[in-house]
Amino acid sequence: MASANSWTLEIPSPVAAPRLFRAAVIDWHTLAPKVASHVVTSAHPVEGDGGVGSVRQFNFTSFMPFSFMKERLDFLDVDKCECKNTLVEGGGLGVAIETAASHIKVEPAANGGSVVKVESTYKLLPGMDEKDEEAKAKEALTAIFKGAEAYLVANPDAYN
């Protein structure tokens, strides 16, 4: 069995932490099809009320190497702009990865913006290229936060 690997990523943003967290994490299932329609065709909660234990599904265009993914919310602290989630179905699970979980925290920055800090822990299936999978995951996460950031900058009254 493969051992667990992890990587970290920091994404600076001019948007305040609470707004970015609400848009890019809490409400991403609503916002993604609007701001990233070239990647996300639709998204919706599958079970739960949005709190811990809830599962939501994202459906993707052919831009992604898989058609959907489901993630479970394992921890949420809205006041601290922090959450943890686990991939439970789709998203390369069983194809490239055995397990995957992320810890996301959006922290205030001195300039009034924020810094998104992501730590991902995963197990790849045998034969998968660790550097390639890590690069793809970081690129996708950066795109999510930059997409939400662009929306928030263009819509200063959204998610206040």
Automatic annotation (TrEMBL):
**Which superkingdom is the protein from?**
Eukaryota
Q: Which CDD domains match?
A: Bet_v1-like
One GO molecular-function entry: signaling receptor activity
Can you quote a single GO CC term?
Answer: nucleus
Q: Where in the cell is it found?
A: Nucleus
PROSITE patterns, sorted? PATHOGENESIS_BETVI (PS00451)
Q: What is this protein called?
A: Bet v I/Major latex protein domain-containing protein
